[in-house]
Design goal:
single chain; alpha/beta; Glutaredoxin; seven-stranded mixed beta sheet; 7 helices; 7 strands; 18% strand; globular
Length: 204
């Protein structure tokens, strides 16, 4: 009964997330509109700085997210499915935490990664009870935890990427084609089927 109640609770949350995504989403399929700029840089968790141009030649799916963002939780589950579906030579996935300007820290990011990856229930999840991570694992049948094997980084303390991509709401998705053109943008959750439809358009 408790498991059923958790699923009902997260189902209600998921409906609100989908409604939020519907009203805030923005589709852009014009690959000629603009390209990413040379100053699109972010930091890896080990402190190394990366330029988005380092991923040239691949499709790049960028997820702007936050450690304390409830709307961002289901997006991570969809990203794991996508990561396990496509050839790594065709697609790179990058999750960039952009709430540093709002006070989040690298430690917060490391903590949420542990919480995503641990087998539920675990102590790490308790730090993020406000984003219903444990309920999300139950809802998506991922009680053993996720494997976040894609690239994970964070914005600078001035909020450079937040100002460009995070102010309209997160999760904010940005998909670049192999030439680096912006093919798709959306503020709000995009499920696995929606992502694969877009990625297949680019690949084919």
């Amino acid at each position: 009964m408790n498991k059923i109640n958790k699923k009902i609770k997260f189902s209600i949350i998921a409906i609100f997330i989908l409604l939020f995504s519907f009203f805030t989403g923005c589709l852009n399929n014009s690959s000629d509109e603009k390209t990413y700029s040379q100053d699109f840089v972010f930091n890896l968790l080990n402190g190394e700085q990366k330029n988005i141009r380092d991923f040239a030649g691949k499709i790049v799916l960028i997820d702007f997210t936050g450690a304390n963002c409830g709307y961002c939780v289901p997006q991570m589950f969809a990203l794991e499915q996508v990561y396990n579906t496509y050839d790594k030579n065709d697609l790179s996935i990058i999750s960039i935490f952009v709430w540093m300007i709002l006070g989040e820290t690298v430690q917060d990011i490391n903590n949420i990664i542990v919480a995503y990856e641990c087998k539920s229930p675990c102590d790490a999840e308790n730090l993020f009870s406000h984003v219903n991570l444990r309920e999300a694992k139950d809802y998506f049948d991922k009680e053993d935890g996720l494997e976040l094997n894609w690239v994970i980084g964070y914005d600078d303390s001035e909020g450079t990427l937040y100002e460009k991509y995070g102010k309209d709401g997160i999760p904010y998705l940005l998909i670049l084609d192999k030439k680096g053109n912006i093919y798709y943008t959306k503020a709000g959750y995009t499920d696995y089927n929606g992502l694969t439809e877009i990625l297949d358009e680019i690949i084919n």
